[in-house]
Amino acid sequence: MSHILTQCKEKNTRVIWHLVKNLWPHRNTPWPEISLGMILGCGGIHLRPNRPRRNDQQRGKATLQGPTRLLQILLSESAYLIWTLRCERVIQEKPLSEGEIRRRWYCTINERLTIDKVTATQIKRNNKYMKLITGTWEPILRKEGEIPVNWLQCGEVLVGRTA
Prior knowledge:
Blueprint: H1 2-7, H2 11-23, H3 36-40, H4 65-90, H5 98-124, H6 127-143
């Protein structure tokens, strides 16, 4: 599993982890070295600020909610896609071009963005959840260009729209 998900030199693995690393918008939080343990334990990851806040009672215990959630999504979705594409290549003998791998990855990430947008605006509809979704996705969307003020309600806001 470690080889398939992190070390394999096949296009699937190389292209997907390259896309993920380049998409990561948080300069103050460097992209981590990916390992099987990190992928399997991604639900327990908690990114912390470099410097504790002055008013934080438990200095250094604050979690960066948006970046943590984004890292968890990127790791889990990308690892699952790598596995899926590997099965298609090996079992179904269906090789994919680099362009098709990119398209499938962007489609996967955009599906997650859409699910979050629908959940925030139509199901949960509370400010705390909307703030979490905004903190998760807005840094990526801003990195890629200007976004509408009400991007959470817009259907056409996508990750990788310039790719």
